[in-house]
Amino acid sequence: MARALGARVYAGGIKEIGWGQVSPTKQGTASCLAPLAEDGASVLHWHGDTFDLPEGAIRLASNDAYDNQAFAYGRHALALQFHLEADPRQLEEWYVGHAVELAAAGISIAQLRSSTAAVANRLPAQADRIFTRWIHEIS
């Protein structure tokens, strides 16, 4: 989405793969992403690229690895660098399909499985709250 809006997209400094947090900005905590500011909120990071914030976009979240983790553009567009939609029950397909990428990055599939199990019970409700609020906000 950043590229479609005229911003630069490029290789980041690190490959960010695994469960972690993002920090919503002031605008982010006032948006549908507010649940990501709660204790225990986790998102799945799975990228090695980053982007410049498009002109006119509002940064909604960042973390220590990347300043731009989420942004809004206008009233309807929500861009996420992380994966809220990832279903823990289907991530095994990701692990198998990306085994070479994970090995090259030195990421343990066993550790990913363990981390997934630790957060799996919270993720569906978190994603539902975020996406439901976003749909209500744009409708």
Structure report:
The chain is of the alpha+beta class. Helix content is 32%, strand content 26%. The chain has five helices and six strands, in the order E-E-H-E-E-E-E-H-H-H-H. The strands form two sheets. It has a four-stranded antiparallel β-sheet. A two-stranded antiparallel ribbon has the order 1-3. A hairpin with a 7-residue loop joins strand 4 (58-62) and strand 5 (70-73). The chain starts with 8 loop residues before the first strand and ends with a helix. The mean pLDDT is 95.
What are the SSEs and their pairings?
Layout: E1 9-20, E2 23-24, H1 26-29, E3 43-51, E4 58-62, E5 70-73, E6 77-80, H2 91-97, H3 99-104, H4 109-119, H5 123-138
Antiparallel strand pairs: 1-3, 2-4, 4-5, 5-6
Task: Determine the structural class based on helices, strands and strand pairing.
Answer: alpha+beta
Low-confidence stretches: none
- Determine the oligomeric state from the structure: single chain
Strand content: 25-35%
Rounded Rg: 15 Å
Query: Between the first and last Cα atoms, what is the distance in angstroms?
Result: 20 Å
* Helix-strand pattern: EEHEEEEHHHH
With strands numbered from the N-terminus, the spatial order across the biggest sheet is 2-4-5-6
Quickly count the helices: 5
How would you describe this structure in keywords?
single chain, 139 residues, alpha+beta, four-stranded antiparallel sheet, two-stranded antiparallel sheet, 6 strands, globular
Short account of what is shown:
It is built from five helices and six strands. It has helices at residues 26-29, 91-97, 99-104, 109-119, 123-138, and strands at residues 9-20, 23-24, 43-51, 58-62, 70-73, 77-80.
